[in-house]
Design brief:
This protein has 6 helices and 4 strands; from the N terminus they run ααααββαββα. The chain is of the alpha+beta class and 192 residues long. It has 2 domains: 15-75; 96-191, Gyrase A, domain 2 (2-Layer Sandwich), CATH 3.30.1360. The longest helix has 60 residues, at 16-75.
Amino acid sequence: MKINLMKPAPSIRRYYHWWIGAVVLFHVLIIGGAIWLYCEQKSQIERIDKQMALLLPIEKETKEKVKKEEAFRQQYKVELEYKESVEKLQIKKMEWDRILRSLELALTPEARLFNLKADGDTLSGMAVFASEKNASQFEQRMSQAVKNFRVDALEKASTVQEVRIKPATALVMRFHFTVTPQNSRKQEESSR
């Protein structure tokens, strides 16, 4: 029987060839991964170059159109600003003739309008009536004709300081209402 009294060989020396093989394999995998990554990036760059080649003429064409548009806007700046201002005003256009006509139609025969004032889209004024019944009829007719018709006050003619009204027993109605612009009215009608 043989007895081996020597220490066992360390694992590095025992598996030396395996360790070298693992290190070489690790480096080969790293190099292979780097080569694959390089090739993938190269193919993506080629794809992007092809897309750029297709988009460059479109970009050039678009830049030319933008330059022409800027030159046109610079040349006709005043006219374009005027046109935009007119369009904005048309959006807020009030039909004052229609509004005044509805006021006249709502009045009773003996009634008279005075002190009409327009402030933006709000119309305020005063009306003189012979009786409360006539004032009530005017209020009902105007409430039907205009959405936001409000009576501010109904008082005897003798208490009104702004103007002198005859007879002193007549009634003075102070009123106001907000007028909706023509275009917003058309939008409301089309949404119904």
